[in-house]
Automatic annotation (TrEMBL):
PANTHER family named in the record: INNER MEMBRANE TRANSPORT PERMEASE YADH-RELATED, TRANSPORT PERMEASE PROTEIN
Molecular function GO labels: ABC-type transporter activity
Protein name: Transport permease protein
Species assigned in the record: Aurantiacibacter marinus
Residue stretches making up the ABC transmembrane type-2 domain: 49-285
Protein location: Cell inner membrane; Membrane
Pfam families: ABC2_membrane
Recorded coiled-coil stretches: none
Length: 290
């Protein structure tokens, strides 16, 4: 009887070994699609629960910029790049709203987790660093697109503004690249920041000035050569000018597809480099796992 019990026990252990893999051996190979999708939807639902604040309020704020500047600078039929001032400034305001809100969304998730002590909820699930970054950045880009659509709708209804699209590829490419660049930058800031004041400082002293001083309300040919050089060193300038080219067919960086193509490639390369840098910092665990 003892031998039978021992044999049965040994058989149970063997079956357990077959059913349960060794500790630490990953069971999800390739892309964890369910985990990635769950993180993306969680981030989408987070900002949609307060959509009045995260989508519609930025649209109203951006529309106020349009009202103020068209009233102050658009009088007496002022024309810029061959179009009325309101039509000229509208694409830049849409792009500015998209980029600022992409930054705001991606810079919140990790920082809020660190501040509230819930960062473990993002680091422990069986998703890779790349999937974590992709899910948060994709949600930030989604918010940027929603904000851009809301702003465009408001401006389409505004008298004196024509949002006719001349080059759809430029609108899509520069819109997505601008949102992605700020989403990646915001994600990197959320890793570095230790409190919301750090995040606000980056937003107020870097993101906002670069957005406003990027040719949103003017053409850089009106500036002195020194400030033109500074403007061309600003990556926001290429995003906004390329986006404007998509609507007007005219911009500070060129008036043909060929002329703008170089800027399109440049912003794509910039996003690849920024993405690799952000991934390397996230993978290192700096300020997250240490």
């Amino acid at each position: 009887m003892g031998k039978a019990a021992s044999a049965e026990f040994a058989g149970t252990q063997n079956r357990a070994k077959r059913q349960f893999p060794p500790k630490g051996e990953p069971q999800i190979t390739g892309i964890n699609r369910i985990g990635l999708w769950s993180l993306y939807i969680k981030e989408i639902r987070r900002f949609l629960k307060v959509q009045t604040q995260t989508v519609w309020a930025p649209a109203v704020t951006t529309l106020l910029f349009l009202v103020i500047f068209t009233v102050a600078l658009g009088r007496e039929g002022r024309v810029v790049l061959g179009v009325p001032f309101g039509t000229f400034v509208a694409p830049g305001l849409i792009m500015m709203g998209m980029m600022q809100n992409a930054f705001a969304n991606s810079s919140f998730s990790l920082l809020a987790g660190k501040m509230q002590g819930t960062i473990i909820d993002l680091l422990m699930p069986p998703i890779s660093n790349a999937e974590l970054m992709l899910g948060i950045v994709a949600a930030a880009v989604t918010r940027a697109v929603l904000v851009g659509g809301a702003v465009a709708l408001a401006m389409w209804l505004y008298p004196g503004v024509d949002l006719h699209v001349a080059h759809p590829w430029a609108v899509i490419w520069f819109g997505l690249m601008g949102a992605t660049m700020l989403a990646l930058f915001g994600f990197l800031v959320s890793i570095w920041a230790e409190k919301f004041d750090h995040n606000s400082a980056i937003s107020n002293f870097i993101v906002a000035p670069l957005s406003l001083l990027s040719g949103t309300f003017y053409v850089i040919s009106n500036l002195s050569p020194f400030f033109q050089t500074i403007s061309r060193a600003n990556p926001f300038f290429y995003m906004i000018s390329g986006f404007r080219f998509g609507f007007l067919g005219e911009s500070d960086i060129g008036n043909t597809n060929t002329a703008v193509l170089g800027a399109a490639i440049g912003v794509g390369v910039l996003n690849v480099v920024l993405g690799l840098l952000t991934y390397a910092v996230l993978k290192s665990g700096w300020k997250l796992k240490s």
